[in-house]
């Protein structure tokens, strides 16, 4: 059955699959970008859908906006706990010798609440605004150095570079070594199957190197006057300064991982969306004040994390379906963000929506993204600086997409820049 | 209609009107009061409608219930006080006509 579906890429063929056979966990559907057609069917025909058999085992798909909201805000029934499988459709597995870092994104209250409370002030907008001028200046430099008129890969030359630069700025990380941050972020979430690391042993060694490096930075900052970077804030704040080192490291890496792929793909996704919707691009060019509402629309449109997963702690009913204790429940944000019963003209990219932040990309409830305004801040600065320099970032070829059912990623995006 | 006054962190006051039965979140959003975003649509899931109830009004509005989603979300918000509430959880009953709410400096 599976191989047969694999080759199906047209709407007709997708429409013909028996509903009970639909399995939206397959990464290929995201890579070839047919996933939206599957979600359209589920929202219409079977919005709370049980898939009996898949490479990640049996799981429930929640596909409508309001049902997703109901699961996301019910953490007493729907757990994020790593030991139960965690927050992604693929179980987080404990592998011997893998050096498991504990992160509050995969914890339930009360531990989640204590840790999040301690770390939250470090990303408070009042702190971040102080970093804005440096981020802007460095973004300007990256954009100024790009060749105009030549074909370049936007992902490598701009999205990754800008994201790494902002991370380095946020942590006041040694500038010349900034790509270390990107590497550590990649390996934190990597399993050997991904090709990013060779083995769990190798990953462990790299993470220990990372730990030592941050220990050095921590010791340096704690002996200096408090500054605005996140490490200094955590080293000096009463809530975090006495944290056991491994806990500090887990939290620090969570901030790095949380803002890495997600921001990168929002930068790429924005360029793609504007090119696919030239009328919207024209409106932006005429009125750059629309950047403020365009940024959350880009985040909705891209939905950088396609889903978050929970594990049911008791039997529960959603949309007339009986979820059993222990079941895996997947909230497909990518589907909810296209739910026309809640979002007006959900299939259209519209840069001046009235309530642009009414989307699911950051989740809701107690785990709602802690970096959501930081992510918006970065994207706003970047788009303001792009607008000043380029009349158009023209996509000149087909984008390549990531083979992943979790990160909605663009791996290659050829563009040509037109000077203003 | 009932009246609500929003006081910005800089001290500017804005008096707006809202149908009774709506919440203080709608009072702010329908009238474009800055600083209240209300991302989740008013279902107590995001804490971007955080307000400080004026001390004179806190007994009529009611204090934050200790357990429940509203308190859980507010524990992560910036600048909370004993007068903190989420505007979407304040239904505008006639007895709240004239309510004064302070918008915190940061709303995230
Ligand atoms: C467009 C960019 C981003 C998107 C789409 C995004 C998405 C998300 C989502 C969906 C969650 C919810 C997890 C859950 O419910 O289980 C989350 C949590 C989180 N995000 Fe983000 N994120 C982004 C940027 C950032 C940035 C820049 C940071 C850095 C500060 C960050 C830090 C976090 C943290 C620490 C959590 C855990 C919150 C908790 O469990 O209480 N994110 N993010
Ligand atoms: S509008 Fe989201 S909590 Fe009030």
Question: What is the topological layout?
Answer:
The complex is a heterodimer of chains A (420) and B (108).
Chain A: H1 2-6, H2 11-16, H3 27-31, H4 35-45, E1 48-51, E2 59-62, H5 65-72, E3 78-79, H6 111-119, H7 125-144, E4 151-153, H8 154-171, H9 179-188, H10 200-222, H11 230-236, H12 245-258, H13 261-276, H14 278-286, H15 291-302, E5 307-312, E6 316-318, E7 321-323, E8 328-332, H16 333-336, H17 372-389, E9 390-395, E10 400-401, E11 410-412, E12 414-419
Parallel strand pairs in A: 2-8
Antiparallel strand pairs in A: 1-2, 3-5, 4-12, 5-8, 6-7, 9-12, 10-11
Helix pairs in contact in A: 7-8, 7-17, 8-13, 10-11, 13-15, 15-17
Chain B: E1 2-7, E2 13-18, H1 24-30, E3 50-53, H2 58-61, H3 69-74, E4 84-86, E5 99-102
Parallel strand pairs in B: 1-5
Antiparallel strand pairs in B: 1-2, 3-4, 3-5
Bound molecules: protoporphyrin IX containing FE and FE2/S2 (inorganic) cluster.
What does this structure look like?
The complex is a heterodimer of chains A (420) and B (108). With 420 residues, chain A is α+β, with helices and mostly antiparallel strands. Chain A has one domain: Orthogonal Bundle (Cytochrome p450). Chain A is globular, with a radius of gyration of 21 Å. Chain B has one domain: Beta-grasp domain (Ubiquitin-like (UB roll)). Helix content of chain B is 16%, strand content 21%. Chain B contains 3 helices and 5 strands. Chains A and B meet through helix 6 of A and helix 3 of B. Bound molecules: protoporphyrin IX containing FE (HEM) and FE2/S2 (inorganic) cluster. FE2/S2 (inorganic) cluster binds next to loops of chain B.
Bound molecules: protoporphyrin IX containing FE, FE2/S2 (inorganic) cluster
First and last CA, distance of chain A: 52 Å
Beta-strand percentage of chain A? 5-15%
Low-confidence stretches of chain B: none
Structural class of chain A: alpha+beta
Average pLDDT number of chain B: 94
Helix content of chain B: 10-25%
Number of discrete helical segments of chain A? 17
CATH class of chain B: Alpha Beta
Q: Percent helix among the residues of chain A?
A: 40-55%
């Amino acid at each position: 059955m599976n191989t047969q579906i694999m080759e199906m890429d047209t709407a007709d063929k997708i429409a013909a699959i028996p509903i009970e056979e639909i399995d939206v966990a397959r990464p290929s559907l995201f890579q070839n970008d047919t996933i939206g057609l599957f979600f359209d069917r589920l929202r219409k025909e079977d919005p709370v859908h049980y898939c009996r058999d898949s490479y990640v085992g049996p799981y429930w798909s929640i596909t409508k906006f309001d049902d997703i909201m109901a699961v996301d805000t019910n953490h007493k029934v729907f757990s994020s706990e790593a030991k139960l499988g965690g927050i992604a459709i693929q179980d987080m597995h404990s592998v011997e010798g893998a050096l498991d870092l504990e992160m509050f994104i995969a914890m339930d209250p009360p531990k989640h609440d204590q840790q999040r409370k301690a770390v939250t002030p470090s990303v408070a907008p009042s702190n971040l605004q102080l970093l804005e001028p440096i981020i802007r200046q460095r973004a300007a430099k990256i954009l100024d150095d790009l060749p105009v008129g030549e074909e370049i890969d936007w992902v490598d030359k701009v999205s990754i570079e800008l994201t790494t630069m902002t991370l380095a700025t946020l942590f006041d990380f040694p500038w010349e070594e900034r790509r270390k941050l990107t590497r550590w972020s990649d390996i934190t979430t990597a399993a050997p199957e991904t090709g990013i690391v060779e083995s769990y042993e190798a990953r462990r060694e790299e993470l220990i190197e990372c730990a030592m490096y941050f220990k050095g930075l921590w010791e340096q900052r704690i002996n200096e006057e408090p500054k605005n970077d996140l490490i200094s804030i955590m080293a000096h704040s009463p809530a975090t300064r006495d944290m056991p080192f491994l806990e500090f490291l887990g939290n620090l890496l969570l901030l790095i991982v949380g803002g890495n792929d997600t921001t990168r793909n929002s930068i790429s996704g924005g360029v793609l969306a504007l090119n696919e919707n030239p009328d919207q691009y024209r409106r932006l060019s005429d009125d750059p004040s629309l950047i403020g509402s365009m940024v959350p629309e880009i985040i909705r449109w891209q939905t950088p994390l396609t889903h978050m997963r929970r594990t049911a702690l008791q039997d529960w009913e959603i949309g007339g379906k009986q979820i059993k204790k222990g079941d895996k429940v997947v909230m497909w944000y990518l589907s909810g963000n296209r739910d026309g019963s809640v979002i007006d003209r959900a299939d259209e990219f519209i840069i001046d929506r009235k309530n642009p932040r009414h989307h699911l990309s950051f989740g809701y409830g107690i785990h709602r993204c802690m970096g959501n305004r930081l992510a918006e801040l970065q994207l706003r600065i970047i788009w303001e600086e792009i607008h000043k320099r380029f009349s158009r970032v023209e996509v000149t070829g087909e984008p390549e997409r990531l083979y992943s059912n979790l990160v909605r990623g663009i791996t290659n995006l050829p563009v040509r820049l037109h000077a203003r | 209609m009932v009246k609500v006054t929003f006081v910005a962190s800089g001290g500017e006051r804005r008096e707006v009107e809202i149908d009774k039965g709506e919440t203080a979140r709608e009072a702010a959003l329908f009238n474009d009061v800055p600083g209240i975003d209300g991302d989740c649509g008013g279902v107590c899931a995001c804490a971007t409608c955080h307000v400080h109830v004026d001390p004179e009004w806190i007994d009529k509005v009611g204090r934050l219930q200790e357990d429940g989603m509203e308190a859980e979300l507010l524990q992560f918000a910036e600048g909370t006080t004993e007068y903190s509430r989420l505007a979407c959880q304040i239904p505008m009953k006639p007895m709240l006509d004239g309510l004064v709410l302070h918008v915190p400096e940061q709303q995230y």
